[in-house]
Amino acid sequence: MAKENGESSHGSWKKHVDDIKKIFDFKEVLGTGAFSEVVMAQEKVTGKMVAIKCIPKKALKGKETSIENEIAVLRKIKHENIVALEDIYESSNHLYLIMQLVSGGELFDRIVEKGFYTEMDASRLIRQVLDAVNYLHSMAIVHRDLKPENLLYFSPDDDSKIMISDFGLSKMEGTGGVMATACGTPGYVAPEVLAQKPYSKAVDCWSIGVIAYILLCGYPPFYDENDSKLFEQILKVDYEFDAPYWDDISDSAKDFISSLMEKDPEKRFTCDQALEHPWIAGDTALCKNIHESVSRQMRKNFAKSKWRQAFNATAVIRHMRRLQLGSSFGSSIQSTNSVPNPQSRAPAKSQSKYFNKLTLKLFICIIKIKKKHVLKYIKCTKLDSVHSTILNGQLCNSSINYLKG
């Protein structure tokens, strides 16, 4: 079974275990990433349901100290709108993060399923996000990857609270010098990050502004299938409140968003200031039903959650087709992070004939997801030539021919 480390000078807090399945019954895979897998599980002794993030130790090499320090801090976070890290186990090969299980689904999926949705609903959602992020900032923690996919409903109940998840890129201010690492998800990242300038917790406030924008119209303020052009838009803060989608949205909502999506981080609203804005604290958020317009745009511009990983797999294929032999592995990772409109994307013509092994390994890792969802997505996008690749979870001759173009 498990043996818990005592506190040491290095703050040891992990419980050592030979086999995690002696403590938990693994039920089903909730999601997979390039370096981890999240599984729904039940604790055998208590019967409690949890989510377990399983991280191979080989993926942590060279990052052990920083990861341990950050997780130690996250264990102290207690907020009603933040998914809790409840325990940590360690085996010879894996690190297991035992997380609070949330079952209400993703933010956009729930909005699309509603029959009635207003500015007031969006305001209440953003207030909860602001409360949670303000709490993090009060503890000098910057999330650095706020986006709709990381906002989950606690339960299927209509009045369920929203929860912030995924602290994989979180950072403590004042530890390890100034923050300057370019990270986050394209489309939600702040201009100062793209400009490679030192940045602060103001980057989270920018991301909340982007999320609020999408909640009121159903499409992102910045979009281009070319990352360079997308980043240029963000650096210039080149967005509009387009007609007719914003015609029925209040001026107060637009002012709120503009205050968060301010280019100068010194002038950008803090969470405290945003919480005091009339659109959040007052009664300026309108109660007119905007569900039809918003849900139509969300369906058009964002993949459904059950297809999202399948879409990421095909996005990697498209990106690999554009790679030259010496292309960097890191850029291919970045390309999988965006959530573009699948209806407006078309595979670029390939100029490369061969691909490095690391990129192919990334592709194999991402496509380990439920077959039926992939089949549906492939049928939709007519990527029949990679059909057998994704079914088998490995590269085969037919898909190599497809990749070679």
UniProtKB/TrEMBL annotation:
Presence of the UniProt keyword RNA-binding in the record: no
Compartments reported by the entry: Cytoplasm; Nucleus
Keyword Nucleotidyltransferase: no
Pfam families hit by this protein: Pkinase
Superkingdom per UniProt: Eukaryota
Example of a GO cellular component annotation carried by this entry: nucleus
Record domain Protein kinase: where: 24-280
Annotated protein name in UniProt: Calcium/calmodulin-dependent protein kinase 1Db
Organismal lineage: Eukaryota, Metazoa, Chordata, Craniata, Vertebrata
